[in-house]
Structure formats: C-alpha cells, structure tokens
Amino acid sequence: MLSRAALSLLSSLLYALLLLSLTGIVNTVEAVVSCQDTITTATAYRYSDALMFFTEYNGKSYAIARSAVSGRQSLPDGYFNFAANISREYALTGVDSASLKRMLELGQYGAARPVRIDSRQTLDFLLKRYGNYLGAATSARSSYIDAWKEFGTTGFTYLDGTALTFTNWAASGVYTGEEPQAVVMGSDGVWNSGLDGGRIAQIVEFPGKLDCATSSVDPATITPPPPPPEPPPPDPNAIGNIMCGQDLNNNGYAADPGEVANCIRTPQGQFCPVGRTECVESYTAPLCPAGSALETTRDMCQATAQNVCGSGYSWDAGIDRCVKAVLCPDNGVFNPVTDRCEKLVQNECPVGYVYDANPASPTYDRCVKP
E strands along 42-117, which residues? Predict the structure, then answer.
C-alpha cells in the first residue's frame, strides 16, 4: 500500500504530464527534426531558410521549396530544387554516381525526402495544399516524387526499393524499358517519368511532426496559399545587355538576391543600382581550369574527356564503352560472327580416333575409329 506522501508525489507527476500534454510541449520534444536545424553539416542553411508552408498530415510533415513562392533560384531558396541527374553512364551501364537518388543516400538533403504519394487521400491533400504553386509536369514548376526506376528490367518502386502502393500514371502508361527513370508530378497530380532538370516547386516530406508544422486533418478544409506574386515590371531605363553586381554580404560571391541587376541609363551616364555606383564596363580574358579551354559556341570551359578503363579493358569509341577481349577456354577461338567460342573438330579427336573429312562419307565431319 502506498503512503500518503507517495500518493501525493504520484498525483503531482500525473498532473505535470497532463499539463505538458495540454500545452503542446510534448509535440515539440517528439519532433525528429527541428525546422531550425541545419540541413547538413556542409552548409549553414536551415530547413526554414529553404522551405515554406510546413504542414503536418497523417503523421508526416510536408513543405515546399521557397523558390516556388519567391521565384528566386539562388541559395537558399533553391536548395531543394531537385534534379534527377541521370547521366549517360547510369543510363547505359547502371553506374550511378550523382543522381538524385544517390545524393539523397549521401545525405545532401538531410532528413527531407521527395514526397511519397501512397494513396489518393495523400494526393488530394498535396494538391489542395501546394497545387497553386505547381504547373505542368514538363515545366520547372513541378515536383519530383518518391518513385524511381533502377537500371535494368525491374519496374518502378519507392526510392528505398519497396513496392509502390499507389500510382497515378499518365494516359500513355508506365515506362517499361531498361533505362533508370525519375518521376515528376505537376498541378494535375498525374505522374510522368523520363524527365530531368531542376524543379523550383519541389515538395518534400519529413517523418513525424516538425516543431514549426501546423496540423491539417481534412484536405477539404485547407485554404490554399495565395498564388506567387507577379514579378515587378522591368525598369524602362535598364540596359538589357549590361549587368552589374556587388558582394554586399561579403560571402565570397555576388549571386544573392539584390546583388545583381541591370545597369540603368541616366542623363548623367550609366548607373548601377547595386551599391549606387557608376556602371563602368570592364572586360578580362576568361580563366579556365588547367587542362581545359574556352569553347566559344557554348561559352563554357571544356576539357577532353578522359576515358579510364579497368585493368584488362580498352576503350571502344564506336560503342562508347570499355571492352575486354574474349578469352576462350581449352584453346578455343572466338568467332565474332556467331559471337561464341569455337574449336575445330579435327584438332580435338581423342586418342585412337581420326577425323573424317570426306563430304561423301556417312560419318563426315566426325571423329571415327577405324
């Protein structure tokens, strides 16, 4: 039997737990990730710097890239502008070195993942919450989802390799070839594969309820956010072909919002609105890394491709692959016409047998014993 003091202590503990639950502090403690956490140890950007409209639904938290609202693709707004990045090597051989799936595995995007659509209910919620910021799947204003096809004959799965529990493929049907494919969704909620390139309206999800996420229960009760603001009209005095910039925040490059602009023509001369200075054109020769040179048609530094093959292999430019000579067993000879190793019968007759080379003989082209 508990003493009076023990009962009093137990009552106090139960009251304290009830108070924590009612004030919502428990939810904050349970959050796996905080919106104020840095995305990775390699950057100082936080999730809240690059994402907006954090919403909890059915035990997960969802958000959309800030670039969908601001229109800016510079960092941090464009940090989550995912790209499939399926290289030619990946498509031909299955060697994946830099795809979206690979970058997720390496932790480049922290705990954020492409949104998983596992039911019609989840799809309706996403379109109601973020649909105003989505455009056509073929445009940059769309979102990659948690669906992927690996190289080879296997079909589409979630990124972790488990089977899809819901699909919403376009009328043309699902891709059945062997190349790896990512999956993109636009404002109509239809799935399209085989597309690449950055998506400025990327939707991501997190496990559990983030500390800054607001809860949502029924998609029908969600008030969609306002559409993105129209960009300001261009300055009629702007000089279209002359840009100027200045590193105002001293982070080492002039690419952040407000640091680059068109020069303006005024009665006093050309004027740069960034830093309020005179706009003076200056030119320097391009500097390319060692081993590369400026390719003027594409305006890029290019270097000759270095094809490095493994031991025993050589580069075949005709098929753009590393190849290795066929070594036939038992002194066989490779026949490129039949694509197999072959041996002449007359050289392989066992002891006591001879090869019959007479076309008129019933035992022609065989080893026979006299």
Answer: 51-57, 60-65, 113-114
